[in-house]
Amino acid sequence: MPKYKLKSNAPLANHKNVINKIKISSIEKVELFSLAIPIDGEKKAKTALAKVIKCKMPSPGNCVVSVEQKLKILRLAPEQALLYFSNQNLPQIQKTLQALKKSFYITEQSDAWSGTRVSGQQVIACLERICPIDLSYDSFGINCFARTSMEHLNTIIIRNKRTEFELFSGSSSAKSFLHAIETSAQNI
Q1: What is the pLDDT of residues 91-102, one digit of tens each?
Q2: Which of 36, 57, 39, 40 is nearest to 48 (CA)?
Q3: pTM of the predicted model, to two decimals?
């Protein structure tokens, strides 16, 4: 009987490009976990985050960064958050997830999302062509995030630095999403 070996296949395969001084690169080796709060479980979930991750539960639409655990918690909705971290921290975070199981329904989402990092002095000019939200620094500062639609694709956008953003969209449409970003960069 033949022996088969599964091989991980990144949707954008370490893509890197520079267009009009805008750096566009795929985000590889990250983990995303959905944390769903059970009905009437908000208080228990807040307590668990404070105890296990040592941070407050962000309000919907906000983000909290745990420097100690090297992760971000994006509060997507009243009953849902997204844990985002580098996969090199997965062994440490596995213990955290195990402790959070009593207060959240946890689902791994890593393969469902494809990430693209976009940076450079003209990044706002690039993104404002395809992103319907106000990305000015006063309205959308560092560690701000939003769920939005870009080129008819559901997207999560996170601002990491003044001129750097991370964009996540469904991995099944990763190439179309990348094409939209690169076309926008070309048309600055």
Answers
A1: 888 999 999 999
A2: 57
A3: 0.88
